[in-house]
Specification:
This protein is of the alpha+beta class. 18% of the residues lie in helices and 32% in strands. Strands 1, 2, 3, 4, 5, 6 and 7 form a seven-stranded mixed beta sheet that branches. The chain is globular, with a radius of gyration of 16 Å.
Length: 166
């Protein structure tokens, strides 16, 4: 069935976090019953909700700051039970869901403050992997390249835009 796109359609906003600990990256496997990317390996993240900021005091007269950082803190806690800090930007993308709703995804990286992983029911396994080890997992398309970008950033190399490698 072809999806008809409304040019005025509102987007979901999602943020993900590549979590770094001792030179390794945390990846997790999505449950087989998930609608999007079942049984594929990914990084934690989720949708921005109005309640993520609306009840909070504004940081300036009209603005809330650190919304994406707070979003990934919440999602990482919910999905893998970790605390994170020291955020950095990796890239952004658009994903159009099966229901036709476009989703803007902002990919961040962060250091793990804790290391006791506790998986949410929507995730079945996890692994701390090096960039080389990540090649052995059935990652959602684009995740490996985001890991590469993060690796370059952490090594102090010049940041580049996302580019398909695998």
């Amino acid at each position: 069935m072809a999806i008809k796109y409304d040019q005025n359609l509102v987007h979901y906003i999602t943020a993900t976090a590549i979590i770094v600990k001792d030179g390794k990256y945390l990846i997790a496997k999505r449950a087989g019953w998930e609608k999007a990317f079942p049984n594929r390996w990914t990084v934690p993240g989720g949708k921005l909700k109005v309640l993520d900021y609306i009840l909070r005091k504004k940081d300036t007269g009209e603005l809330w700051y650190n919304i994406l950082e707070d979003l990934v803190r919440r999602e990482v806690d919910e999905e893998v039970g970790l605390e994170i800090e020291n955020f950095g930007y990796i890239t952004s993308m658009i994903y159009i869901r099966d229901d036709g709703i476009p989703t803007i995804i902002i990919s961040l990286y962060a250091d793990a403050k804790t290391d006791n992983v506790r998986l949410a029911p929507a995730l079945t396994e996890y692994a701390w992997v090096s960039l080389e080890e990540a090649k052995n997992y059935d990652l959602i398309d684009g995740i490996y390249e985001e890991l590469e970008m993060t690796d370059r950033i952490l090594k102090g190399e010049k940041k580049t835009e996302w580019k398909k490698t695998l």
